[in-house]
User: Fold this.
Amino acid sequence: MSTGKKPHIAVVGAGAFGGWTALWLLRGGARVTLLDAWGAGNSRSSSGGETRVIRGLYGPDRIYTEWVARSFELWQEAGAGWGLRLYRPTGALWMFQADDSYARSSLPLLREVSLAVAELSLKEAGRRFPQIDFDGIGSVFFEERAGYLAARRACQAVAAAFVEEGGEYRELAVQPGPIRGDAMEGLQLSDGTSLTADGYVFACGPWLGQLFPEAIGDRILCTRQEVYYFGTPAGDARFREGALPIWLELGEHRFYGIPGNESRGIKVADDVHGHEFDPTSGERTVTAVRLADARRYLGRRFPALRHAPLVEARVCQYENSPDGHFLLDRHPQAGNVWFAGGGSGHGFKLGPAVGQYVAELVLTGGEPFPQFAYARIATAPPGRHLSQFGDLS
Assistant:
């Protein structure tokens, strides 16, 4: 990319990673073509759906904490510039049944980036949030700046801004072209044409392994995740945005949720990795067993919602790397091809910072941080996934 000419970069995938990468590449002086098979924020993508959590607690890992702080600023800046409310601050209530080292190890780094977190006594937590039953909870932390993002709307807004600023956006499926020497020669598109560029970024989430079966395969594993929206009592504001924060509970179970917004009901999801899933052809109907688990959790933690009806449900997916870290590196046999994936259920919030980072790597030819390097994917046993983050999307 250092030939002096304006490089042409093709970005495959218009989700959180791909859309922001394309926008930052464009702003960095490249000519950019962004491609997506079904469109930005579509229902098959890992960036689809209505909402995603944004939170700062990330254990002792400095880079994620710094990227969250950066992403807070970028989401706010983008929303203000585009006239959209993409980031909605609600605060985040972290509930730990026993081991809370994940939170405590986060506190020094959060102080460094000015993200405020307060430990609450159980008595204080109960006073502030009487709609929650804290029985069985050992410790509670409240993260002030956390909240949620309007996911589908954000993907579409990034794609629209990309086009407005001069990028080319095409809704077409892509197949990688042949690799000869140390470079990929082009892309085959679903309309029968081909596209040749100077560089290629594949930010296609759960499809990375399908497009690159030898280099990636099931080392990034797509799992089926169910999300539920339960109806709250008529006229009861206790479970709406403004009265209830997002919450995340770690212990015997790992559930998280988002308060009612846009008249959708209260969102509840089990964060435990589901079964392996095909994002293209998989049926997206929720299962009775997982729904029953969510109902039991909701009734236990929010007693007034014990008999709440299911009003909406979604099946989405995580694309899990072996260790929960992202894959942000070159193809091992093609120096003009970059991967941006392995979001592992926690990547959406970091889209602006990840996109900026990947764009810089592509334009400067830099080397990624070791935890994002391809080498760790290459040496991982296929299908072995031991995420360390508590993949809270």
